[in-house]
Amino acid sequence: MSVEPESQPPDSSQHTSEVAEPQRGGRHEDRAPIVVLASGTGTLLEAILDAADAEDYPASVVGVVADRPCRAIEVAQARGIPVAVVAPTSFSDRSRWDRALTEAVSDHRPALVVTAGFMRILGSVFLAAHGGRIVNSHPALLPAFPGAHGVREALDYGVKITGATVHLVDDGVDTGPILAQSPVPVEPDDDEQRLHERIKGVERALLPQVIGQIVTKGVVSDGRKAHIRE
Q1: Which is the most buried residue in 23, 80, 168, 220, by most CB within 10 A?
Q2: Is 136 annotated as a binding residue?
Q3: Which residues are catalytic?
Q4: Keywords of this protein's UniProt record, alphabetized (predicted)?
Q5: pLDDT single digits (tens) 74-110
Q6: Sign for the pseudo-dihedral over CA of 195, 196, 199, 205
Q7: In a domain, 73, yes or no
Q8: Looking at residue 123, which CATH number applies to its domain?
Q9: Nearest partner of 199 among 137, 121, 144, 118, judged by Cα
């Protein structure tokens, strides 16, 4: 579920996804609009916003949507960014929530949707509207340790290296094609909180970097394999 670039004919061997026209940074209105989905403290959102403070950063957060009241909403409001809370508990079934979330995000016409600590699986309506243009950051080296407890499971398994992964989002749990990864060594005296904090530090650097690359270069995907265009 990707958008073919208008300037190139489809290639039977590669599927090219252009999430936005190339951006050069500079003025706010010249940047690629992105919407961030969040559920928690907003530390990744803060990292994206801090990156966007740079004059040459090619993307701008135009909206933040959460599935519950959370600190991420407060972070966005403090920066004057439009916010919305679309809570599943406010709807009679998941399909209605899916449509409402899709509408809340689509209103901003984003070039890219970023799930930053968003603790929900996206529905079919949302994926149909934005598929191929959604990225997520996960605190483990996928495909190992997907899901909400990736840090704990990596620690319990006894791995010596874990890390952070930025990947395209599909209809599974952390199963989309991988775009970038960064390793984090596991120290002998690590507990879950200590290890997670170090991984978060890596995520805060990696995710804004990958967002900038995506909106300027686009993504090439071929089945399970995906990469930022050179």
Answers
A1: 168
A2: yes
A3: 138
A4: Purine biosynthesis, Transferase
A5: 999 999 999 999 999 999 999 999 999 999 999 999 9
A6: negative
A7: yes
A8: 3.40.50.170
A9: 137
117 part of a folded domain: yes
The rounded Cα 201 to chain-centroid distance in angstroms is 16
pTM over 0.90: no
User: Is 94 marked as binding a ligand?
Assistant: yes
What is the number of domains present in the chain?
Answer: 1
Q: Tell whether residue 119 is among the known ligand binding residues.
A: yes
Residue 12 lies in a domain: no
Per-residue pLDDT at 5 exceeds 70: no
**Inside any domain, residue 4:** no
Residue 31 annotated as binding? no
3-state percent helix, strand, coil for the chain, nearest multiple of 5: 35, 25, 45
121 is known to lie in a ligand binding site: yes
Instruction: Burial-class residue 153 by CB neighbours within 10 Å (0-12, 13-18, 19+).
Output: middle
